[in-house]
Every structure is written in structure tokens, then in C-alpha cells.
């Protein structure tokens, strides 16, 4: 996606098939460096903000967080929107610390 303005309205080229709007990408280079990104866009074109020089849309799916922050009993809601929360980063390897081989593991 080129940086700059994006379309504001869907055209016939945009699928009308309902989907969940979440994409996950994992890239591993020849030296074993790994980068992973998960993004969820709520509406067509997400936040409509493209990261300059990177070509992907920023997430706009904060509506799934609890805006009140507490449940009916006054306890902190698990899905409360608050600063400092981060996704759990996880990499699975074998006992020697290896993260892979010639074929990806299926389990």
C-alpha cells in the first residue's frame, strides 16, 4: 500500500464478503531473524493511516476493549483499555533452543 491518502469509500474491487479483519504475518530471514505482526482493522481501510515507508495500515479495533474498565461487581475488567498493555510475545523451540529446521513443525 502506497503512503498517502486512501480511499474513503469501498469500490466494486473491494470484497463484500464478511471477514474478521485480522491478519497475522511472520517473516523469517536467512540468518534466522524473525519478525511477526498481527493487526485487526474494524472497517474498510482500518484507521486509514499507512505507516510511512512500511506500507501497512494501523489498527483501529479498540472497540473490543471495555471502556468502563470494571465489571458489575466493581472488579477490574480483563479487557479494560489501559496504558502499558502489550501482546504476549511467544517463540517455541526445542530443548536445545532451536526454533526450527528444514520443515516447520505442525504441532
How are the secondary structure elements laid out?
Layout: E1 22-28, E2 34-40
Antiparallel strand pairs: 1-2
Explained architecture:
The chain has 107 residues and is mostly beta strands. It has one domain (1-83). Helix content is 0%, strand content 13%. The chain has a two-stranded antiparallel ribbon. A hairpin with a 5-residue loop joins strand 1 (22-28) and strand 2. The protein starts with 21 loop residues before the first strand and ends in a 67-residue tail after the last strand. The model has no long low-confidence stretch (mean pLDDT 69).
Q: Please give the largest β-sheet.
A: 2 strands, antiparallel
Number of helices: 0
In angstroms, what is the radius of gyration?
19 Å
* Overall pLDDT metric: 69
Keywords, separated by commas or semicolons:
107 residues; hydrolase activity; mainly beta; 13% strand; transferase activity; 0% helix; hydrolase; 2 strands; two-stranded antiparallel sheet; Ntn_hydrolases_N; GGT_ssub_C
Write a short abstract of this structure.
With 107 residues, the chain is mainly β. It is 0% helix and 13% strand. The protein has no helices and two strands.
Amino acid at each position: 500500500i502506497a503512503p498517502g491518502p486512501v480511499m474513503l469509500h469501498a469500490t466494486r474491487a473491494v470484497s463484500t464478503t464478511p471477514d474478521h479483519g485480522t491478519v497475522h504475518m511472520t517473516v523469517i530471514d536467512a540468518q534466522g531473524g524473525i519478525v511477526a505482526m498481527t493487526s485487526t482493522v474494524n472497517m474498510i481501510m482500518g484507521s486509514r493511516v499507512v505507516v510511512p515507508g512500511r506500507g501497512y495500515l494501523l489498527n483501529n479495533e479498540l472497540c473490543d476493549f471495555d471502556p468502563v474498565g470494571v465489571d458489575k461487581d466493581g472488579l477490574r475488567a480483563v479487557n479494560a483499555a489501559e496504558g502499558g498493555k502489550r501482546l504476549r510475545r511467544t517463540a517455541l523451540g526445542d530443548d536445545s533452543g532451536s526454533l526450527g529446521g528444514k520443515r516447520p513443525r505442525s504441532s
